[in-house]
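Possible regression after last week's pipeline update?

I re-ran a chain I had predicted before the update to compare outputs. Posting the input and the new output here so someone can diff against the archived version. Not blocking, just want to make sure nothing changed silently.
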Amino acid sequence: MAQRTPVKEQFSRLSPASRLALAVFRVRAAGKPAGIPGSLFLGLTSRCSLSCLHCKYRGGAGDLDLPYPLALAALREAAALGVPKAVFFGGEPLLYPRLAELAGAARDLGLFTELDTNGQELTFARARALARAGLSSVMVSLHSPSPEEHDRLCGRGTYQKAARALAAALKAGLVTYVSSCVFSAGPGERDLRGLLAFAKDSGAHGARFLPYSPRAGASRLPAALAAALRREDPAGFAGTCLARGRRGCAAQRADILYLGPSGDLRACPYALAGLGSLRRGTLAAALRRCGRAARGPVRPCQKRA
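New output (post-update):
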């Protein structure tokens, strides 16, 4: 296994633009107004180049793109409200025709820009072009340290392309993370340890582990995953939707807001209930509803008993 790079040295490999964007983001995130989310997720498209077995969007999502003027309006309002980060989400956001243009607009508004991608279309040339346009960070989906298991979930050859995408993003000087869907998190979970080791050995700056949530009913996995990460990753290299030392998930804390391809607003991409539409309202109005809806012990992605 490759020798691991210390975190400080990893971040020193960032391009000057990404390093500056990260520094500004940290300042803005620390000083954002109360009640304002840390991130606006823009679901740019329902289209995807894959059909992963575990994906909630698998099948029946249609081919819908978020209209560019609506995306731009959302970015402008988010920046005015004090939201520090915009996350380009999907589907697969690399299929969105005006992604580079939107990244540049977000950067010009002072937003830290992040791409959440399956990595299948992310070559070094594409990563470099997006970085030059205004992208600061990339999250690449990789769901198992085993190529065979990842390919079983996502399709033949997808592990290799995702690993190449990680390398391409790092080479382009972008802040780079591994994003994984975790299906179990028992004591000594080997797959969790393997994902942590892979992310660190790849040179990534961190990892995000998303607990698999069934289409119906509640799950104890988010809490189990958070507990497992406290054991296996005390330094905090990886994060999940349940933040260390804070109550509730990011959606329950109203720390994120999601805008879907149809203009629908939700507390997070996986929330079951809607918060209205940006076509007929504002982000500010959705945030007021989000604060009320998020209260309580049941996460927005789970059905109440």
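Follow-up from reviewer: compared with the archived run. The longest strand covers residues 175-182. Marking as no regression found.
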